[in-house]
Amino acid sequence: MIDGVHVSPRRVIEDPRGDVLHMLKCTDEVFTQFGEVYFSKLHPGRKKAWRRHRAATSQLAVPVGVVHFVLVDDRATSPTRGVRADVTIGETSYA
């Protein structure tokens, strides 16, 4: 895995009326603060790329469907420089 990337299983409370999916709590080890929350909708079968960030902290969740993330460490001083991480999260593997 890429240095600094954490994939944490999230709790799903199943209920016949509709499930509750935890995303982030202030007691989570990876939580520091946040500046905004937004949602991105992807159309089935389409690819959507985020632009390159020199430094960023993102908390991602996929409560509906499945998304495959491809992460590449291009940081010059990183111990995992050049490493590619493929992470799939969503309804079948909620993280």
Description:
The strands form two sheets. A two-stranded antiparallel ribbon has the order 1-2. The model has no long low-confidence stretch (mean pLDDT 88). The chain is 0% helix and 19% strand. It has a single domain (1-95), classed as Jelly Rolls (Sandwich), CATH 2.60.120.10. A hairpin with a 6-residue loop joins strand 1 and strand 2. It has 95 residues and is an all-beta fold. The protein starts with 11 loop residues before the first strand and ends in a 5-residue tail after the last strand.
Number of strands: 4
The number of helical segments is: 0
Low-pLDDT segments:
none
Quickly count the domains. Answer: 1
Strand % is 15-25%
Topology of this protein?
Layout: E1 12-13, E2 20-21, E3 66-72, E4 84-90
Antiparallel strand pairs: 1-2, 3-4
Structure, briefly:
The chain is an all-beta fold.
List its salient traits.
two-stranded antiparallel sheet, Jelly Rolls, 4 strands, mainly beta, globular
